[in-house]
């Protein structure tokens, strides 16, 4: 029995193809995988994206990620079929150690907001279990801080601030 490895295949399709043509190409690649006794795990359509550089006179491409398990000796045949398809302007197939986990942006933002709320409440539980500290988490945290500063400034009834704002407005209006 052949052992199967997990692979990720990223395809960049020509953006000038219709949606039906793009779906047909994706289904064809998926059927090639299953015909080679592979198992599809996930097909994730990323859609149209700007390319980093022009490829075959295209500035944009339609991205698709396919994750599958297949015997290593079947990969060359699969790549030959991909190369023959003219609508695919780039592809890369890599072996992965772990399976594919679909990225869920909304859930990550919710987890990060919960992490920040827990951090503010000074909870002693392990905060790493609720969320990872990510770039997005840091962005959410900085936005929260900005909102708090704005609320604090709006709620401030300090007469010095009002006097300062009045003088500043007089300077702007040219009265001083």
Number of helical stretches of at least 4 residues: 5
* Whole-number mean pLDDT: 80
Calculate Rg over CA atoms: 26 Å
SSE sequence, one letter per element: EHEEHEHHH
Strand line-up in the sheet with most strands: 2-3-1-4
Helix- and strand-based class?
alpha+beta
Q: Work out the helicity level.
A: 40-55%
> Roughly how many Å apart are the termini?
89 Å
Shape: elongated
Descriptive report:
The chain contains five helices and four strands; from the N terminus they run E-H-E-E-H-E-H-H-H. The protein is α+β, with helices and mostly antiparallel strands and 176 residues long. The protein has a four-stranded antiparallel sheet with strand order 2-3-1-4, with helices on one face. Strand 2 and strand 3 (58-70) form a beta hairpin. It is elongated.
Task: Give the helices and strands, then pairings.
Elements lengths: L4 E9 L5 H17 L3 E17 L2 E13 L4 H10 L3 E9 L8 H16 L14 H21 L3 H15 L3
Antiparallel strand pairs: 1-3, 1-4, 2-3
Helix pairs in contact: 3-4
Short description:
The chain has 176 residues and is an alpha+beta fold. The protein has helices at residues 19-35, 75-84, 105-120, 135-155, 159-173; strands spanning 5-13, 39-55, 58-70, 88-96. The longest helix is centred in the last third of the chain and has 21 residues, at 135-155.
